[in-house]
Fold this sequence. Notes:
By secondary structure, the chain is mostly helical. The chain is 54% helix and 3% strand. It has helices at residues 2-10, 44-51, 53-56, 64-78, 88-114, 124-136, 146-163, 173-180, 189-200, 210-215, 228-241, 251-258, 265-277, 287-296, 301-305; strands at 122-123, 170-171, 208-209, 248-249. The longest helix is centred in the first third of the chain and has 27 residues, at 88-114.
Amino acid sequence: MLLKSLVSLCVLAVAALAVPAQEKRVHHHGDLSERPHDDAHGFQYDHEAFLGKEEAKTFDQLTPDESKDKLAKIVERIDMDQDGYVSHAELHSWIRHRQRRYIQENVDKHWKDYDKNQDGKIAWDEYKNTTYGYYLGEEFDDVDDKETYKSMLRRDERRFRTADRDGDKIATREEFTAFLHPEEYDYMRDVVVQETVEDIDKNGDGKINIDEYIGDMFTPEDGESEPDWVHTERKHFSEFRDANKDGYLDAAEVANWVLPGEVDHADNEAKHLIHETDTNKDGRLTLSELLDNMDSIKSSTITDYGGMRVDEHDEL
């Protein structure tokens, strides 16, 4: 099970389920959602951005009255100055909190698997032996694609060594978080870029050409023509991604593509949510406005928000 989990860990495309293929390589700090942000086709992105990914899954099990009760508790917590309004700053802070909470919970889940001696740290040997131990002595001979697993081991060790800032081959909780979520740490930036290039660069020249770029997103069936979004991505490659116009994406260009750190997606989402639900357009939200929207729009962003499990001990 751990080895299977590693496959998921090693894939840099965190958003792989419902995200359009052309978006899957882009790393947003503390991904707000794995869903596409397209209100015309539903509000699941807003749902997960507001609640966090795990809590959002519980909403469908709640009755409308339970949803309203949960929403009221959430709004009370978001309204930090208790003035009866949710401001942009408060909403932005809340969404960022949900981002951080998701990362912390993800690290907690993996920590229990790898800290075998329960000393509050994870040594490289602990991680390696827990993940690959059964296979190491056999050189992956009983695995169909053993070269893939050998490559995964080398890649994991490289990422672990980069996350291990003091070089003692033992990861603190912060260093292990950097190992699991390298997109969250500036000093892991080169690893994210390197792994992305390795994933897409099929001819091994250390660069990404247009065919490799498109091939990572779209593989046509026999006789299938390219959809419009693929044509758009071809234009994006030549007009925006390939900044020096040499026909390839080098490491710097890949970094600009997959790590758009200058974009604050939590801030953008807060603005979007206020725009969608601020009935009187005063730039802030009241519980009444949220409830009104929840009652009038089935499966709206507001209805989605109602499902969060509010734990009395879960502090902002």
